[in-house]
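At your convenience, could you comment on the folded chain following this short note?
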Amino acid sequence: MSNQPGIDTKLYAATPERKLSLKDMLDYFTKHGSMRVSDLHLKVGAQPVYRVDGALQKMKGALLDSAAMQGLARGILSDEEWDTLQAKRSVDSSYITETMQFRLNCFLDNDGLVLAIRALESNPPPVEQIGFPNNVWRDIIARQHGLVLITGITGAGKSTTIASLISRIAETRPCRIITLEDPIEYRLLSKVALVSQREVGRDVPNFERGLRDCLREDPDVIFVGEMRDRESTSWTLTAAETGHLVFSTLHTRDVRGTVTRILDMFPPLQQDEISSQLSLGLSHIVCQKLVPRADGQGRAVAMEILTNSYSVGNLIRVGKLEQLYSLLQSRTRDMPDERMITFERSLAFLVKAGAVSPLEAEKWANHPTAFLDELQHAQQM
């Protein structure tokens, strides 16, 4: 199809005299970096919109019409993906440049085509640059088995954190790493470790099948892109329980909500069994948020971290989840069995360091009163 639009085809009228291609729009990510500019939204009847430092910013050009929108989507989707879009009304894809990778979702709404583009660096940042408030990441990459959950809302940087942790393992440990992703976001290199990345829909039909296969493929480390439902969650817990180090993600706002979300995936009669399984198999929960910096230059990460100590496992097993927050507040020493922290203390440390303003931090706290107490304590240290 020689007349088919390409990613370099100038289709969007940024000004009456100047048109932009989709490649021109993607170059904006390269210029500013994915930690600042995370998303691009293209939609019929609207101007292109970037998400910069967590907030949406419209371009000052013309509204996208159906013809331009179809050309932009057609230029980045393969023939097979375009056919899937027509049949299923949405399609996931990815696109790689020399410096960055993009995760795409194209779908139809009431006005026509919509394209959501998420930017990722080609290589994950070093784990030291993620922003962990303590050295818990050293404990995580040293683990031989257990379940590590990285949670947070959409756009909180979960994929980046996991990719950095797994990349460090691949650089330092002779082990077998297998990932199941939808789609693959970071390309992980086989260095000291041997890495296989499988994309759901391309290399394997679904997470459940991938996990079943994985347990027969001699992995040491497994990454499950997301625990989406009861079956994938059950297989993920089994993998962690049978001697593998397993990473996965959930969309939850705090540690307690993460445990509750897992249990709620199962019927009441099975929840005691899952509580016991989770209490034994869980290694760490890291919930994270990206908070706008005080200087307006990007966002800082705040984390709530749970380490599955004996006390934590017991609370999960007997269902006293309301007491987890007290352990997060008290088990904070710089020791492998502790290194826990609440969002509120993490935010207070960011304020004390001048990275985040007090008012901004208070807006992102799950418990504003606890945050104010932590801020006062931090300023006295």
About this structure: The chain has a mean pLDDT of 92. The first helix runs from residue 22 to 32. DSSP finds 14 helices and 15 strands in the chain.
